[in-house]
Design a protein that fits this description.
- There is one protein chain.
- This protein has 132 residues and is α/β, with parallel strands linked by helices.
- The chain is built from six helices and five strands, in the order βααβαβαβαβα.
- It has helices at residues 12-21, 23-26, 35-45, 59-68, 88-100, 109-120, and strands at 2-7, 30-33, 49-51, 74-78, 105-106.
- It has a five-stranded parallel sheet with strand order 3-2-1-4-5, sandwiched between helices.
- Helix 3 (35-45) links the parallel strand 2 and strand 3.
- The longest helix is centred in the C-terminal third of the chain and has 13 residues, at 88-100.
């Protein structure tokens, strides 16, 4: 599976800890992230992460294109809903694209854990038919 990873600045440490905790599952998949998030994940997990541009420099648009091309199977976006960002409308587009293309999207730790555990149990195999 191809997993997209994004984290607002205030959630980057949480994303690192999440990836450390689920390294055993994540290492069996392809990881894609915005630049800073990807670099931080690589630093603490030694996982290979394909890095888009930084989110505010177009990384979220690159991830959106990957969603439209049916290249990503799952998105984990740990966001800070209490600190709106200038480029939040771009992320709203990402949410819309996930809905249109039936891509599971986690925007908090609880949902991210559920999706990764379902991935481990093989419950995400239905995504394979979308890539045919």
């Amino acid at each position: 599976m191809n997993i997209g990873l994004i984290a607002h600045d205030s959630k980057k440490k949480l994303m690192q800890n999440f990836c450390i905790a689920y390294r055993g599952i994540l290492c069996k998949n392809e990881l894609y992230a915005t630049a800073t998030t990807g670099r931080l994940i690589e630093e603490v997990t030694n996982l290979n992460v394909y890095k888009y541009l930084a989110g505010h420099l177009g990384g979220e648009q690159q991830m959106g294109i990957s969603i439209e091309q049916n290249h990503l199977d799952l998105i984990i976006f740990l966001r800070d809903p209490l600190s709106p960002k200038m480029h939040d409308p771009d992320f709203n587009n990402l949410f819309r694209l996930c809905d249109i293309h039936n891509i599971p999207l986690a925007t908090n730790l609880a949902t991210a854990e559920l999706l990764v555990k379902s991935l481990e149990h093989g419950d995400m195999e239905w995504r394979e038919m979308y890539r045919q």
